[in-house]
Amino acid sequence: MSRDTIRAFICFEISDALRQYLETIIEDGRRFKEAISWTRPGNIHLTLKFLGNIDAQQREAVSGVLQKLTGAFRAFAVNIDRLGAFPNFRRPRVFWAGSHADNPALQRLVAQLEDELGTYGFEKENRRFTPHLTIGRVKRMPFVKTADFLKQFEFEPHTIECREMIFMKSELNPGGAIYTPLATFPLQP
Fold first, then answer.
1. Which residues of the chain have a pLDDT value below 50?
2. Domain 6-176 in CATH: superfamily?
């Protein structure tokens, strides 16, 4: 990776209340001492698009796309009301918090983002966007106690106020990823 290349993604931040709530769930999950790599609460966000390693020219293109979308979309809210696992709780690779309900505003925004970035050579995601907040990744067996705990957890609903998209830099370090906002792009009120 050259000096002007960075690893980046686009996201919405979550509220402090939701972050603290997820932190309590993560702490409860740690007690099982299973092979789960838990997300640091400060690094939890709603990712719209992972961009991977991008150069200065691509950064400029992404900023232009995000600026264009700010004029086309109004702020909206996403309800987070459950815990889940990809692909499922029997064979989990990722544990997450997400929503039972579809969110048309979010789906339209992500579809437009995919289309716009696709014109600049970014690979389009073929799967339907599933909004989620990653709270842990399964490294290996065992994971059954953690999966059972999360599957049966009665999640207290929280709302993410999606008011500004964040163009985020991600630096991988031995102690975990460090995220630095490059720019914020407010949606219409």
1. none
2. Cyclic phosphodiesterase (3.90.1140.10)
